[in-house]
Amino acid sequence: MKAGGAVVSLLAVLVTGFFLFRLIPGDPVKTMTGGRPVSAPQLAEYRKEFGLDLPLWEQFTDYCGKALTGDLGTSYQFHAPVIDKITEALPNTLLLTGTAFVLYTALGLVLGTRAAWRRGRFADRFHTGLALTLYSVPSFWLGLLLIIVFAVGAGPIPGLFPTGGMETGGRHGLAYAVDVAHHLVLPVITLVAVEYGQTLLVTRSALLDEMDSDYLTTARAKGLRDDLVRRRHAVPNALLPTVTLLFVNLGRTVAGVILVETVFSWPGLGGLFYQALSVPDLPLVQGLFLFFASAVIVMNTLADLVYPLLDPRVGRT
């Protein structure tokens, strides 16, 4: 049933993506010529080459038929299969989002647990307030601020990190890995700062709901230390809604790095989407939109399937 719902959602994304991006103003063929004077017959030949001379309904059926077989078309600007461009940029996005995901998940879980267990104290109020503030900050604004302060340099603070890109170039082996890690710092900090707050708040809320449960009172009555009560009993039960959030966040993070990758000129799927949108490179935009939406849908479906395994009571409702 859930898998069927995911398939329906993907089909809806397929249809929406095709028609949505055709509302973008501009002629892709004229944009591809780079402003060079091109005759009407040449423009007509370009449109025929990319299938833009066909009726809209025929373009749609052709696109859907190919997409269902894994063929997302050919990029207008790169003259390469869209699936190849996605495959080429995907590892860079996974490096950025994967690193950020691990860090903001760990940070949110640890701070959320401590905030709930010490509710009402200064640490709880401080971490909750900071999480709410950073969660409300636009990622592109925070990224630009970090570039100004820590890359360009502001006042007594020197420029410590690159302003953008993934590598300096000309390095190999360990030096290359260190160089990539150096470029990775600011975009990862941006994603972690914006995303960890949601994990913290959900973990804190879930743990607070468990605090007055009878089984915790029983555990304390048996003489267990407060630390053991928290780690062995309270936290495992409170993690159930957080696990669902982690699956959702993983898909959403992959789909939501467009602004961060654009600000830091990171050569991943987000930067590629921005490039494609500026043309507009319709096959590439549609392919990336389908990929981003698929990541969210797949992660949501996995969350629905995993949750009953963690809490059998869900499967009986």
Quaternary organisation: single chain
Biggest β-sheet description: none
Helix/sheet category: mainly alpha
Uncertain stretches: none
| Rounded radius of gyration (Å) | 24 Å
User: Using DSSP, what is the number of strands?
Assistant: 0
Helix-strand topology string: HHHHHHHHHHHHHH
Task: Give the proportion of residues in helices.
Answer: over 70%
Total count of helical runs of at least 4 residues: 14
Give the percentage of residues in beta strands: under 5%
Shape: globular
Q: What is the averaged pLDDT score? A: 81
Distance between the termini: 15 Å
Write a structural description.
The chain has 317 residues and is mainly α. The chain contains 14 helices and no strands. The radius of gyration is 24 Å and the shape is globular. It starts with a helix and ends with a helix.
